[in-house]
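Here is the promised in-class demo. Please do not try to memorize the tokens; focus on the logic of going from shape to residues.
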């Protein structure tokens, strides 16, 4: 059976499209009796399965409106989408790409995204929710399976993969069965991301601007207008981080007015994000070399090579003593510079005024654990609203909804994070609260407190 025969059969039966969809039972969400013991990978699996099932159910409303559709502009080469469709009752065009063999499915996402890009140009400005993708493919290549998971999890693409199946080479037996990622596949892509050593933190400070942004007199606290200004800075920063796909947190703070004698740059924005290169280093060390998370944390990225991650790269042999660039370390440093650049741009934009051409700024870089131990940086100050972004935001609300459901039914005593009973009645009251969000980030780092025994054992020795 050829790919063209499958394409023709689907098109000829477009009026009965739903009969081609295999009715299967989606895997159950991982049920944890007490959400205190939920791991990030388990939460992510539940999120993906829920979203994936929603996409699959929407296919029953899909109307195919074109087959072998040429997408081109004048003087450009033509690309052809296998199918175009619209989802009834939902916003969005649907691109359907068909690949019959393992050999051809490797090009699937290149072509899918090319078609999508063309449609976004035609219907500019399209948002991510305005276009959906369906990949019909054997899903035998690991790179295709991982690309599907990454597209859903990190790129927020509306995509679903369907496996074509038939019996005895009979086209009339063709069915399309949804490919569903396993927990193991999801865990392998997300493991070791959530570690304190992967969170790079940058702090940009700026002038006190007494009377407008900070108190004019020593010993005074900022008034509500000043607090609102600072919270507007973090709200804007969170929007920028979301747009750039940064998974982390942001907040503003202000040193106590009594400390101005030590320096007048008392206003600050603090941005923390998961450095993807450090996270990848840890993932390789824990999966390929069987290191524990805390052991992987101790391996500096300066001593880890990009060839460990992309072994297909050809290394040029150099004589001993010659300079050997560490591309991974360089990429990590560049990522850090981009984050600090975001901080400076935000401060420069939001402190623009009618009476000042220039405002003095400064900056510093930390890891999250070290920053919180620095009393001058994190204690003698007013910490304002905190906002989480990207996957951290999604996980926070996924965890919190489960926490509230559990506590409403069982009380706080058996909940490891909220046993003290100090939890507001409404979830909204913890959504930007420093105390609850910081504890949640620590919870992601070490959901099982798995290193505590090792630490205690080391101390005894």
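The designed amino acids, position by position:
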């Amino acid at each position: 059976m050829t790919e063209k025969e499958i394409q023709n059969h689907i098109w000829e039966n477009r009026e009965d499209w739903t009969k081609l969809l295999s009715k299967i039972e989606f895997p159950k969400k991982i049920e944890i009796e007490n959400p205190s013991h939920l791991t990030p990978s388990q939460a992510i699996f539940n999120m993906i399965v829920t979203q994936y099932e929603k996409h699959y159910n929407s296919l029953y409303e899909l109307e195919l409106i074109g087959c072998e559709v040429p997408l081109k502009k004048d003087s450009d080469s033509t690309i052809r989408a296998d199918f175009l469709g619209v989802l009834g009752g939902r916003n969005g065009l649907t691109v359907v790409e068909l690949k019959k063999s393992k050999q051809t499915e490797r090009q699937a996402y290149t072509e899918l995204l090319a078609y999508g890009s063309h449609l976004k140009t035609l219907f500019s400005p399209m948002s991510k929710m305005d276009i959906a993708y369906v990949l019909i493919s054997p899903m035998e290549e690991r790179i295709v399976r991982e690309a599907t998971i990454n597209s859903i999890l990190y790129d927020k693409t509306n995509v679903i993969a369907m496996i074509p199946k038939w019996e005895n080479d009979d086209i009339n037996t063709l069915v399309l069965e949804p490919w569903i990622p396993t927990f193991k596949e999801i865990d392998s892509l997300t493991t070791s991301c959530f570690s304190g050593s992967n969170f790079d933190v940058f702090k940009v400070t700026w002038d006190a601007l007494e009377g407008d942004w900070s108190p004019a007199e020593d010993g005074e606290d900022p008034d509500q207008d000043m607090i609102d200004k600072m919270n507007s800075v973090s709200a804007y920063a969170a929007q920028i981080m979301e747009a750039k796909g940064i998974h982390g947190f942001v907040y503003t703070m202000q040193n106590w007015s009594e400390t101005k004698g030590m320096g007048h740059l008392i206003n600050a924005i603090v941005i923390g994000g998961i450095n993807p290169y450090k996270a990848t280093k840890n993932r390789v060390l824990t999966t390929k070399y069987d290191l524990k998370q805390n052991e992987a944390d101790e391996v500096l990225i300066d001593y880890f090579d990009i060839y460990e991650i992309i072994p297909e790269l050809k290394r040029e042999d150099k004589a001993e003593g010659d300079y050997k660039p560490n591309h991974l370390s360089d990429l990590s440093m560049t990522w850090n510079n981009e984050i600090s650049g975001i901080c400076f741009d935000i401060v420069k934009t939001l402190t623009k005024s009618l009476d000042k051409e220039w405002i003095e700024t400064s900056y510093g870089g930390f890891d999250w654990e070290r920053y919180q131990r620095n009393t001058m940086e994190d204690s003698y100050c007013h910490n304002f609203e905190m906002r989480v972004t990207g996957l951290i935001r999604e996980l926070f609300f996924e965890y919190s909804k489960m926490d509230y459901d559990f506590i409403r039914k069982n009380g706080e005593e058996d909940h490891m994070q909220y046993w003290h009973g100090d939890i507001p009645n409404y979830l909204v009251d913890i959504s930007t609260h420093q105390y609850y969000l910081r504890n949640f980030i620590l919870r992601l780092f070490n959901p099982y407190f798995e290193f505590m025994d090792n630490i205690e054992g080391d101390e005894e020795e």
